[in-house]
Amino acid sequence: MSARRRELAVALVATGDELVEGRHVDTNSAEIARELLAVGFEPRRFTVLGDDEDGLVHALLELAAGHGAIVITGGLGPTLDDVTRHAVARAAGVALARDEGVLAGLRERFARRGRPFAEANTRQALFPAGAEVLPNANGTAAGFAIPVAGALVVALPGPPREMRPMLAELVVPRLVARVADLPCVERRAFHLFGLPESAFADAAGAWMERGANPLVGVTASGGRLSVTLRAEAATRAAARELADARAAEVRARFASWIFSEDEPDLAAVLGRELIARGVSVTLAESCTGGLAAERLTRVPGISAVFGTGFVTYADEAKTRLLGVEPALLAAHGAVSAPVAAAMARGAARHCGARLAVAITGIAGPGGGSPEKPVGLVHFGVSVDGVVSTEERRFLDLGRDLVRDFAASTAFDLLRKALCGLAPAR
Asked: What confidence tens digit (pLDDT) does each residue in 1-16 have?
């Protein structure tokens, strides 16, 4: 590794038995990584350790060899299992020293609140000799910074409400000041639906190579792709120019699938657009059982355009509430394009809605057949009375995922239909 790459590389360490035992999740490292990426650093390693002093010493010395900085969260409390200060002191080859100013501040803090000062709290005034103390305005655990084997080790308290302001106000500025000619970074984000991750990778090609600048990355969840691009240059203007150029290429290449550049929730994007355009909508759900309506009604103000939805799980409900002919159900079955079309048409007519989507499918685990397997879902879409249908065959990855895919697909079909409609007058 070059000296420059090591200088920019940062390792993040989270400590606590509650993390390795699965009782809590480490959210600090992800948040710190995002903040450091934004100013030009390169987070390279996430490490989660229990309250293990020897393990932390070993990890620090190993990480110091390949990183310019290490940020630790947790283990700065007053109890015997809070071992971060002891481990860092050992790794740095120094003793612990008591900071009388910090100790006086702790005593005053407890007295001001009318609380007894336990002897255990004196541990929070111990720091590796020579460390810079980082004050904590929101708690009793001060942080500190000290070089260890050529890397700057920064220790912060674990509670996010304490960690977050210290990171922004005390840590990021110190890390930035240590590095000459820190690259300027510009980031862009895109959210896509309906495109497989592998197909995206094929289409993106060299954009995703590790040495690319801008570098494009993608993550997949529930049929949705979150695409990020990261451009860096010597100046902010140059980085912005690189990012804007690649962003324009992403828009052109993936226009059919991009639903947002800021909001990752497809239902929220659809709901806000429906409200902005004043276009009324209704939903007729079978296999999703009201899941789509529940998600759409999370959008504030959605009642302006969505007044009624239908959960017609049984064939009798499809006939009674949506006017689906029994003969149609007998001829084609509930999971079919003709029934989906009839459901959408009936829902739109009943509510007087300009847009309607119907969802009928087989979510499993039972009920499938060779002709109609688990994962088969039919959609009906009514746009100002004109009805079309779509079929999807989702992988049988479990009932919840089939329902999730189906609800999201319904939102995407409505979003695309909405694009062709004029706003309400």
From this structure: 688 889 999 999 999 9
